Description:
Elements: E1 2-10, E2 13-23, E3 29-40, E4 43-47, H1 51-63, E5 67-71, H2 74-80, E6 87-90, H3 100-109, E7 118-122, H4 128-133, E8 139-141, H5 147-161
Parallel strand pairs: 4-5, 4-6, 6-7, 7-8
Antiparallel strand pairs: 1-2, 2-3
Amino acid sequence: MLRNTKVSFFNNHIFQTTYGILTFTDNTNILIIYTFNQFPMKKILVVEDDPHIQTIYKQKLTQEGFEVIQATNGNQAMEFINQKPDLIIIDIVLPGGMDGFDVIQKINESDIYKKIPVLVLTNLENKHKLAADMGVTNYLIKANTSINDVVKRIRELIYDQS
């Protein structure tokens, strides 16, 4: 039997469709198709003020099967956190008076949100210790980290906690 599998996204769920052609001894064929819901899409809040970086991460994470919520400053991040993301990617330097550390502190103060994994993605190499003191164990430097490495870390954080 010839068999192929296709993964698709619809209505915030990932579906896996497998199809194949079964050939009988009398050379008749039958097409077999079945689809099942593999798992719901995981939601990621990306807090980044650079529109170019936002676009790149939105495209890549969507392509990888994640639902992406975007915030450009700390205040928006606090609004969008009510959508209960499965993971937060946050820059430290943000406009509007509330930086990434302020957002992380507010997250840590909330019993509801403090269990959400936070991935700091910044170019501030000298703030790793402060982030660690706030309970952040995932601190990546943008300039030193490929987008594929970020996706790998996201998958580890989201699916290892499930």
